[in-house]
Design brief:
Length: 403
């Protein structure tokens, strides 16, 4: 198998030993790839091979980081909600739009009217922009179909993204996003539909099951029921919790054995300790706080308590329409108060742990060869130079796919 060696790496972030491990500027790094996997990473002077004769890439002092893992997205949707964003700038609240039959309901209407091909095409376009910004793994939720056929179509579109864009795709069924309008008078009937018709129908199309457990969406009992039923179909639970209010979703995450609790804007000290104790990953979405002009989740306190923290864009048409994990890292550092090391770790290794993909989000022997060469000497440039795409090249499964 041919070997590719990247050398003269100004700064190499490996996340070896599950902590940010940075081979710094004065000890240039090297990285060797065979096939789809990394075979060696470390200081260049320790490289066990001669560079002469090998296929090489001179990084000319640029930094290399693992490919970003976007651990929470709603990439499959149709329609446009820029008008809702505009109305919010004028003072209307997100929850008002939702309660008034707009918001998520607006996207559901457009998504139900779209074909599989249309959904896959638009989601792949977003995934392509993510890849161009350095993301090599994307979690994609359904949740704008809210009937069995449209939820299946959404998950098929999500899976189809990986055939069009060279990224790893992890899929999540979010049939319990909100109660669709046709069940407004009988929400119990909708919960039963999710449990007994949708879950078996999507079991082979999704890796995880999520529930939006919050004001205006599903309550604690409903969320627990759905996540418990999901496990019987082999879907691992995750949950939208404490985004709009302090609603007790963290306890459901723990009781249902969720892998990850996401958003967590409104969190108290007991809940932080409980997440740490239960080993639930906290997947934080600062793009949502930015777009909704809401407070930021207590990321630094979660790290401090020993919680595994992941980051995601939450890319969706309502609360966070960004495809850039570089922007998310900048927000996590400048607004949420993570250190740059914590933010880059959460955007790579933390995300991989949130998605239970241990081979992703780090660079060392046996890791997937998914990484980004930044057109900058240090990963510090990511938060330092927001809204600039710093990607020089992206490699996915050992193949150069951008640059
Ligand atoms: O993560 N919170 C629920 N779902 C999305 C928003 C969905 C929408 O507004 O379309 C979120 O913020
Ligand atoms: Fe979300």
């Amino acid at each position: 198998m041919s070997r590719l060696v990247l050398y003269n790496i100004g700064e190499l972030v490996t996340n070896a030993a599950d902590a940010p491990d940075v081979i710094g500027r004065h000890a240039p790094g090297a990285l060797a790839v065979e096939g789809r996997a990394v075979v060696w990473a470390g200081p260049e002077r320790d490289l066990p091979w001669d560079l002469a004769g090998a296929e090489t890439l001179d990084c000319e002092g640029r930094a290399v980081v693992p490919g970003f893992v976007d651990a929470h997205t709603h990439l499959v949707f149709a329609g446009d909600r820029s008008g809702e964003f505009g109305a919010r700038l004028g003072g209307r609240s997100y929850e008002d739009a939702l309660a008034g039959g707009g918001g998520i309901h607006h996207t559901v209407e457009a998504t139900r009217a779209a074909t599989l091909e249309q959904l896959r095409h638009s989601a792949a376009g977003r995934a392509r922009r993510m890849l161009e910004h350095g993301t090599t793994t994307i979690e994609i939720k359904s949740g704008y179909g809210l009937d069995t056929a449209a939820e299946i179509r959404s998950l098929q579109a999500a899976r189809g993204v990986a055939n069009e864009v060279p990224v790893n795709v992890v899929t999540t069924f979010l049939g319990a996003h909100v109660v669709p309008f046709e069940f407004a008078a009988d929400r119990e009937a909708y919960v039963r539909l999710v449990e007994s018709e949708m879950l078996p129908a999507v079991a082979d199309l999704a890796d995880f099951c999520d529930v939006f457990c919050d004001r205006g969406a599903f309550d604690l009992v409903e969320a627990y029921r759905i996540l418990t039923a999901a496990k019987t179909y082999g879907l691992r639970p995750r949950i939208h919790a404490n985004e709009l209010g302090s609603t007790g979703g963290v306890q459901v995450a723990i009781d249902a054995g969720a892998v990850s609790a996401d958003h967590l804007i409104h969190l108290n000290a007991d809940e932080i300790a409980d997440l740490a104790q239960a080993g639930v990953v906290a997947t934080l979405l600062p793009g949502t706080s930015f777009s909704l002009r809401e407070p930021y989740a207590p990321g630094a306190a979660l790290f401090e308590a020993g919680v595994t923290v992941a980051l995601g864009t939450d890319c969706n048409p309502g609360t966070s329409y960004t495809e850039s994990m570089q922007f998310v890292i900048a927000l996590a550092v400048v607004q949420m108060g993570l250190t740059p090391e914590q933010a880059v770790w959460a955007a790579t290794r933390g995300g991989a742990l949130s998605l239970q993909r241990p081979e992703l989000g780090w660079l060392g022997p046996g890791a997937a060869a998914d990484f980004v060469v930044l057109d900058a000497p240090s990963f510090l440039h990511i938060p330092y130079r927001p809204a600039t795409n710093l990607v020089w090249k992206v490699f996915s499964s050992g193949v150069q796919v951008v640059g």
